[in-house]
């Protein structure tokens, strides 16, 4: 490093010629911090360090690894892929420039160098690089703002539904974490490999809290009834899946997101509408069977039932974890997807830990581990 003013942009020169390095350092040091490397391996190490340069001047003809290969490796590494590379070369054939652009260079400077050309091109490409970084940061910031707005909206709507029901905010936190845990451990199984990737699992985690959003449309006398519901009241309660689906579908329509694979609204709608379907076809509202039930809804079915069992309600005390696991096992192949139950059993200590981490009542903390 040949300068001490830390606010200066950093330019790296990679060249096997000591004379060329000395020339470039003398030329650039007044306006830039200058790093030098005498071979490709050293240049790659510096460019992919914690403090990479903002522009690289790279010789093409070097012993060992030539400039083309250095540039190719720079562009394949996440730390250095966006750093602009200008080739320094005595070669002026058209095919050399074509190959350089193909491997990712942004410009060429032909030796013997012209000082004004070098300074102008370095300045131009640094300005473009900084402008690109600024735009990327703005996009990231706007994306974060949008995601935060989505998260706050989801949390608010989910909390509204829970406040109207006998359930609590802890139910929201627990079920979305159960869904993510289960999905992450199913993704590599053959039946789920095409359904679950990182983005889908993230969207499932975001949308899971809206599984009971339709309960805002159910009358309080039914929703908050402490005793057993009548047949007619049960049928009315079951309509919450329709209310939830219709509300989310309208949001999809207004946003133009109908059936978009990477929209959280798609998974929210599937979950809200189908999480009471059963593997054997005896659930509601459509009596879907087996793989006809969306994966998202099958995941929520396991998460929702487990959490309902281990949670305190006005109409029942919390079940111990062991008893909840037994109930899930009893529903293998009838209520629940058999493979999901098998993975759930492997993960039962993790499910219990999530339940403990987000418990609402002291009674749940005391009861849950009993006989586990």
Q: Can you put this structure into words, describing what you see?
A:
The chain is α/β, with parallel strands linked by helices. The protein folds into two domains: 10-136, Response regulator (Rossmann fold, 3-Layer(aba) Sandwich), CATH 3.40.50.2300; 167-367, Hypothetical protein af1432 (Orthogonal Bundle). The protein contains 16 helices and five strands. Strands 2-1-3-4-5 form a five-stranded parallel beta sheet, sandwiched between helices. Helix 4 links the parallel strand 4 and strand 5 (107-110). Residues 1-5 have low confidence and may be disordered.
Can you tell me the CATH class of the largest domain? Mainly Alpha
What's the N-to-C terminus distance?
Answer: 61 Å
Number of strands: 5
Q: What string, H for helix and E for strand, traces the elements in order? A: EHEHEHEHEHHHHHHHHHHHH
Strand order of the largest sheet: 2-1-3-4-5
**Treating each run of at least 4 consecutive H or I residues as one helix, how many helices?**
16
CATH topology of the largest domain: Hypothetical protein af1432
Extract low-pLDDT stretches.
1-5
Overall shape: elongated
What's the alpha carbon Rg, rounded to whole Å? 30 Å
């Amino acid at each position: 490093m040949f300068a001490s003013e830390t606010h200066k942009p950093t330019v790296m020169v990679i060249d096997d010629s000591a004379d060329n390095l000395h020339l470039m350092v003398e030329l650039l040091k007044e306006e830039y911090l200058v790093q030098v490397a005498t071979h490709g391996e050293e240049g790659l190490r510096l460019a992919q360090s914690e403090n990479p340069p903002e522009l690289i001047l790279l010789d093409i003809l070097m012993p060992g690894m030539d400039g083309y290969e250095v540039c190719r490796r720079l562009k394949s590494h996440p730390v250095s892929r966006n750093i602009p590379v200008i080739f320094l070369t005595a070669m002026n054939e058209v095919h050399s420039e074509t190959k350089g652009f193909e491997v990712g260079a942004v410009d060429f400077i032909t030796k013997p160098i012209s000082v004004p050309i070098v300074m102008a091109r370095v300045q131009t490409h640094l300005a473009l690089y900084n402008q690109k970084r600024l735009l990327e940061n703005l996009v990231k910031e706007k994306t974060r703002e949008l995601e935060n707005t989505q998260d706050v909206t989801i949390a608010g709507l989910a909390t509204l539904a829970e406040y109207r029901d006998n359930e609590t905010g802890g139910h929201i936190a627990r079920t979305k974490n159960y869904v993510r845990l289960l999905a992450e451990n199913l993704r590599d199984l053959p039946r789920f490999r095409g359904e679950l990737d990182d983005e889908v699992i993230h969207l499932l985690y975001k949308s899971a809290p809206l599984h009971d959003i339709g309960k805002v449309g159910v009358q309080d006398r039914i929703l908050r009834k402490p005793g057993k519901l009548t047949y007619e009241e049960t049928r009315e309660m079951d309509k919450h899946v329709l209310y939830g689906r219709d509300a989310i579908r309208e949001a999809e329509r207004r946003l133009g997101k109908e059936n978009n694979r990477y929209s959280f609204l798609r998974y929210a709608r599937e979950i809200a509408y189908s999480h009471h379907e059963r593997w054997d076809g005896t659930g509601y509202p459509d009596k879907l069977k087996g793989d006809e039930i969306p994966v998202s809804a099958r995941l929520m079915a396991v998460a929702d039932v487990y959490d309902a069992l281990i949670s305190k309600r006005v109409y029942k005390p919390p079940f111990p974890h062991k008893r909840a696991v037994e109930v899930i096992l009893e529903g293998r192949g009838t209520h629940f997807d058999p493979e999901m139950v098998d993975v759930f059993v492997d993960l039962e200590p993790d499910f219990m830990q999530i339940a403990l981490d987000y418990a609402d009542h002291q009674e749940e903390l005391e009861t849950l581990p009993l006989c586990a």
